[in-house]
């Protein structure tokens, strides 16, 4: 799969996240629509992934929100009438986000794939949560206090949030991504926003 061209996002062809000194600087509300090749009956019809990419010094943060229902092949612990057992699900949630997102999403600095990946935080969120409206809110939410273990949330309605960090050479580099999350659903939409080191988020056309 070719890397997604954020400067030509309508065509979904090869391209880069420009660094902070490039002429065109990146992305608020960038959408990748990816049809899945896996059409089994248990594959969700429409899946929306929300993500922020933010280089800062010598590290790059990736914040991501995915519907837990899209994490197939995992039998998450439940209690009562199908509520997610938050008290015993942490290890499996970490495995799921790695299998379905961490191992799939390919980020590049210039032409070098970023492989020094660290999963820093994972948490479950309610479907009504709006923390991913901004980068700062999302970062604070994902690294903050988890839901109380007695929260009654049906697992198919839960959102799974995660923070990945990557070592980079410079926040001024150019960054690109392969949109490889299509197998999460029959139709997967990834809403990706790039945050400049000064906190600016810019649209890319």
Describe this structure in words.
The protein is mainly beta and 205 residues long. It has one domain. The chain is 10% helix and 32% strand. The strands form three sheets. The chain has a six-stranded mixed sheet with strand order 1-11-2-3-9-8, sandwiched between helices. Strands 7-6-10 form a three-stranded antiparallel sheet, with no helix packed on it. A hairpin with a 3-residue loop joins β4 and β5 (83-84). The two termini are 21 Å apart.
Which regions contain 5 or more consecutive residues with pLDDT less than 50? 5-41
Q: Tell me the total number of β-strands.
A: 11
| Count of domains | 1
Strand content: 25-35%
User: First CA to last CA: what distance?
Assistant: 21 Å
Strand order of the largest sheet: 1-11-2-3-9-8
Helix count, per DSSP? 2
Characterize this entry briefly:
10% of the residues lie in helices and 32% in strands. It has 205 residues and is mainly beta. Mean pLDDT is 80; it is low at 5-41.
Summary keywords:
mainly beta, three-stranded antiparallel β-sheet, globular, six-stranded mixed β-sheet, 11 strands, 205 residues, single chain
């Amino acid at each position: 799969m070719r890397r997604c061209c954020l400067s030509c996002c309508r065509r979904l062809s090869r391209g880069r996240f420009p660094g902070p000194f490039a002429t065109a600087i990146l992305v608020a509300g960038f959408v990748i629509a990816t049809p899945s090749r896996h059409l089994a009956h248990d594959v969700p019809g429409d899946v929306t992934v929300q993500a922020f990419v933010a280089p800062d010094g010598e590290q790059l943060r990736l914040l991501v929100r995915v519907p837990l229902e899209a994490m197939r092949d995992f039998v998450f612990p439940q209690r009562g009438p199908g509520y997610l057992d938050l008290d015993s699900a942490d290890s499996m949630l970490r495995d799921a986000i790695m299998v379905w997102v961490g191992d799939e999403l390919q980020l590049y600095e210039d032409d070098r794939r970023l492989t020094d990946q660290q999963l820093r935080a994972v948490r479950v969120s309610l479907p009504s949560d709006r923390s991913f409206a901004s980068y700062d809110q999302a970062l604070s939410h994902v690294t903050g206090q988890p839901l109380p273990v007695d929260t009654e949330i049906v697992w198919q309605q839960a959102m799974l949030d995660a923070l990945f960090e990557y070592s980079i050479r410079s926040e001024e580099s150019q960054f690109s991504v392969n949109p490889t999350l299509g197998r999460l659903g029959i139709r997967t939409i990834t809403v990706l926003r790039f945050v400049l080191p000064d906190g600016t988020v810019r649209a890319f056309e």
